[in-house]
Design brief:
Elements: E1 5-7, H1 32-39, E2 46-47, E3 56-64, E4 68-76, E5 78-80, E6 89-93, E7 96-103, E8 109-115, E9 124-129, E10 138-143, E11 149-151, E12 160-162, E13 168-170, H2 184-187, E14 195-196, H3 199-210, H4 221-231
Antiparallel strand pairs: 1-3, 2-5, 3-4, 3-14, 4-7, 5-6, 6-9, 7-8, 8-11, 9-10, 12-13
Length: 249
Amino acid sequence: RNIPFLYQPTPSGDYWSLSSNRYFPPKVSNKEVILHRLLSLFHPRPFVYTRFGPQGAVATVRAENERFVDVVFRIHAEFQLNEPPLYPFWFTPAQFTGNIVLSRDASRVRHFHLYVPANRSLNVDMEWMHGPKEHENMEVDIGYLPQLELTSVGPSTPVLVYNEDGQFYDQRDLELSEEPSVFLQEDAEDIRWNSEISMEEAMRSLELKMYPFKKVPYYNFTEAFSRAEAENKLVHSILLWGALDDQSC
């Protein structure tokens, strides 16, 4: 169950730097389309490939049974906010993460949640050009984004509902105050998984896929010295403005 499906620029996971002097995303296709549509709900110009690696998205199955799977995902994407004649302004969240619970045939979505983690003091990178030369006319800052998320308010239901006589009605014709008439009993019940791992373990596997250097344990400043003393080793200290293991650094 390590990484059942993986979406990156190249099968080998090699990355390349892309120009900052751009305004509009390239045409998307295949697996890129759903990511582009989701992120377009935040802003009309999402780039599903960040300018710098690690790029793309990874996902893993956290839990499963005969009917449903719970898929945890991590997406590295960014937005270009300006239009000509203004110079490009890039808005790069640390990551988009979340999960989707859907039927095995993908016909139903039981739950969906996509969000930018806000558990760190810095979680968004901002870069903007103030002149025509990309490498000379670039300003950079980093900040905190308290909330950016998409979440489902209820499970999906089929648009057309058929009865035993083969007749159907369109649920879009229902009054807004009416509850969907199908699947309510199933959706009211908790899902019992046949096999599962914790959310933390699932997210950790995605983190390692994006950042292989995380296979080496890192410790905070105070813990590092007690650990070094216990193992009779030296301390290698790294000071960063931001986090090394997300896109906001």
